[in-house]
Amino acid sequence: MGKVSIGLRGWRFDESAVFTDDGEIMAIDAMDPETRQRVARLREVIGSPCHACWLLHGDENLDACNVAAAVYGEPLSEVVVCDVHEPDFLYWYREEGGSERRGEPELQDAFHEWFLDGGRAPEDYAGLEHVDTDPTAVPQVSGTTSAAEAEREANTVDLDSLDID
């Protein structure tokens, strides 16, 4: 099994950490804590406005914001971006020092500051080429724990005990 994105590009999961041998999504409480936290958080950020669009338009004009297409960073300090602004994030991350904040909660704030200061990818910046097999199919999570309860539980995980790159 390989790595897959679920619902949004960016976060990649080992298939065996999310799906059973039959191809069904595992019960949320059967997933390891890091996977559970990301899957639960995905349910919250799917359909949310792009952070870059939101920075441009604000809460009063959410209708002008594109819906998120990709998520980067760590849960609860992630950056969600639309197709239009994903190259801006990738440029910042790769070329403007954003990668120095990899795994840090400050990643979101640092990107927001750079973007608000006028930071943008050059017109000819390629970004990433993606292969979407079914971008609208988000698996339903089943198990004894609701998604909200799983997220609360995931947020209480002792992060010092996790082996995170």
TrEMBL record:
Please give the InterPro entries that the UniProt record associates with this protein: DUF8114
Kindly give the Pfam families that the UniProt entry links to this protein.
DUF8114
Ranges for region Disordered: 133-165
* Protein name from the UniProt record: Uncharacterized protein
Q: Which organism is it from?
A: Halococcus salifodinae DSM 8989
> What taxonomic classification does the UniProt entry list for its organism?
Archaea, Methanobacteriati, Methanobacteriota, Stenosarchaea group, Halobacteria
